[in-house]
Amino acid sequence: MLVFLIVGAAGLVLLLGSLLLDGVLDSVLPSFDLPGGDVISGPALGAFVTAFGAMGAIVSSAGAGTGVACLAGLGAGLLLGALVAVVTRSMVRTATDATPRSLDLVGLTGTVVTAIPADGLGEISVRLAGAPHKLNARSAAAVLAGTTVEVTEVLSSTSVRVTARA
Fold this sequence. Notes:
This protein is an alpha+beta fold. The protein has 4 helices and 7 strands.
């Protein structure tokens, strides 16, 4: 039973290390590149070894022989290792939103922070991809602070042309 506990503890250390060090162990562990992609990852291997040791210790402490404990540990390890592999693989392949571009500002509405004089420079605040952005703004007509405006043109990465919304 002590051997199973040591194996389980080593698996837990491997599992926590692979989760906390995020890929550092991937450079140490051999890579298993199969046709379907990386099937055996650090977390999956750690989960397998932990489940193998834990289940082996449980079955062994219940009075079963070493062979039965190894088979039970192997079954538990394969089950948990496969589950962790599926979960981590799906997390790695999760799609992300597109990176916002300057042209995405056109058509957005915002609020004037610093008044914009006619053909002068002021500041507006807009939300792009859920994040607030403060930009320099120009307008053909004077616009007072607090007015809602629409971005009509991107002049540079930090400057836009706006028109007041009624």
